[in-house]
Each structure stands twice: as structure tokens, then as C-alpha cells.
Specification:
single chain, 146 residues, 5-stranded mixed beta sheet, globular
Length: 146
């Protein structure tokens, strides 16, 4: 049983949760401003009270979860923020479904729930925003689609 408080939210009608302590702020979402030649995983830049945040895209976003590490702040666009849960009575999935890199899947109330790794999410954002993505030959992975 997970004993840490979790913030539950949805992305494309799929339920997720992230440790509440990792979320600095939840705010309403505006449409991100696109950055030319930026990776597809980066949705653009958001202006939140004069501070620029990089935001990843979501089909229908209504809220932004703000995460930070040091001076790096990222905004994760999500569909809806549902509620805070003091603890999750979650079980591992009954089948052998593989976890995605940043999400550990569990079953709660007979529904799949993705537990998001906030540190992994920040690491991924850092990688996307730096030269760590370069492929052999000097071309970045996002450039191969153009």
C-alpha cells in the first residue's frame, strides 16, 4: 500500500497519479507557444505569471502541473486534475503488462492507474532540452522527421 499523498489527474481520459510533494503548483492551462525546431515531445513554452515553463502537449489540456528541480521548472499539461488521495490502495496489474519508462501501472478500484515518476519526468525534460539527444553524425532525433 502506498502511504504518500498523491495527486490524481487525467491525460486523454487515462487516470494517473503523481506524488503530491513533487508538484509545486497546479494552474489553469493556456495554449503553449511553439518553439521552432524544438523536439516533438516539447509542446512549447507557457507563460505562468511572467515565468516561462516548458510544457509537454496533451490533446485536451485544462491544467498545468508545475514540477521543479533547482532552477529548472517544467509544466506538464494534463486534461483534468481530479483529487488528492492520502494513500492509494493499489495492486500490481494482474497481467504481465510492461511499465512505460516514466509510469508504473497499478490497479485501483478495478481501473488501471499510472503512477508517474516525477524525477524521471524531470530527467526526460532535461534530456530533451539539452544536447544529450544527439545521434551519431550530429543530427538530433527530432530533426530526422524533417
Amino acid at each position: 500500500m502506498e502511504t504518500t499523498p498523491w495527486l490524481r489527474f487525467e491525460v486523454s481520459e487515462q487516470a494517473y497519479a503523481i506524488p503530491l510533494a513533487s508538484v509545486v503548483e497546479v494552474t489553469g492551462a493556456a495554449r503553449p507557444h511553439l518553439i521552432p525546431r524544438s523536439p516533438l515531445e516539447i509542446g512549447g513554452v507557457l507563460n505562468v505569471r511572467g515565468e516561462l515553463l516548458t510544457g509537454s502537449k496533451s490533446k485536451r489540456h485544462r491544467h498545468v502541473l508545475v514540477l521543479e528541480r533547482g532552477e529548472l521548472r517544467i509544466g506538464v499539461l494534463v486534461g483534468n486534475v481530479r483529487r488528492i488521495e492520502r494513500e492509494l490502495a493499489a495492486e500490481p496489474p494482474s497481467d504481465d503488462a510492461a511499465d512505460v519508462e516514466l509510469v508504473r501501472w497499478v490497479i485501483q478500484d478495478d481501473t488501471a492507474l499510472g503512477l508517474v515518476d516525477p524525477e524521471g519526468l524531470i530527467e526526460r525534460a532535461t534530456m530533451l532540452l539539452t544536447d544529450q539527444r544527439k545521434q551519431p553524425g550530429g543530427q538530433e532525433t527530432w530533426q530526422t522527421g524533417f
